[in-house]
Amino acid sequence: MCAIAAVTDVRAFRIPNWLTFSGIVAGLVLNPLLLGIARGGAGFKIGLVSAIAGALLLLVVFGILGAVRFVGMGDVKLMTAVGALLGFPWAMWALAYVAIAGGVLAVIYALVRGSLGKVLGNIGRVTRGVVKREKRDVELHRIPYALAILVGASWAAAIKYFPALRIP
User: Fold this and answer.
1) Which of 41, 83, 38, 35 is CA-nearest to residue 59?
2) Is the distance from CB of 87 to CB of 53 less than 8 angstroms?
3) Cα–Cα distance, 92 to 100 (Å, whole number)
4) In terms of DSSP H, where are the helices of 13-115?
5) Are the CB atoms for 31 and 47 separated by under 8 Å?
6) Would you give per-residue pLDDT tens digits along the chain (168 residues)?
């Protein structure tokens, strides 16, 4: 799901709703179903709560970022699907790893475009505006954040099975 989203985001800066909503539904169905098969009735409940908690966590965090236009709403829906699919607590790891991957991606894009100085200046203006509670005009640079979500979510999924990959 994240790979398809990354391709469409790179090509058109758009993530289709059918993809994100089907990911949310898949997470809410598969987590309870698979844990229910593995652990019985209690596993079903644990899987459902885990999927809902993961989806809500990433919806709230990325919803705030989407509300201030730091990320697009497609990214918000994609991260909600990631939360539903990974469940809690792996959704927290996805959040951390997506943030790391997003920072690296932003620096790479700024370097490739020759605008690293401008981006760093914008960060300084935004920071000063928050500290002094002033509104600052900044030029935002768009990046296909689904690439960062692909890397971060894959990393979080991998640590579920290979804990040695976790960054402490």
Assistant:
1) 83
2) yes
3) 13
4) 17-39, 41-67, 73-86, 90-113
5) yes
6) 999 999 999 999 999 999 999 999 999 999 999 999 989 889 999 999 999 999 999 999 999 989 888 889 999 999 999 999 999 999 999 999 999 999 899 888 888 888 788 777 777 776 666 666 666 565 667 889 999 999 999 999 999 888 888 877
Instruction: Give the type of residue at 20.
Output: T
Q: Residue 46 in contact with residue 37, Cβ under 8 Å?
A: no
| Residue 87, phi then psi, degrees to nearest 5 | 75, 175
Mapped onto helix, strand or coil, the DSSP state of residue 135 is: coil
Distances (CA, A) of 8 to 74, 132, 155, 165, 168: 11, 38, 21, 28, 32
Sign of CA dihedral 31, 36, 39, 41: positive
Contact residues for 157 (Cβ-Cβ < 8 A; gap 6+)? 86, 90, 94
Tokens of 43: 């596993």
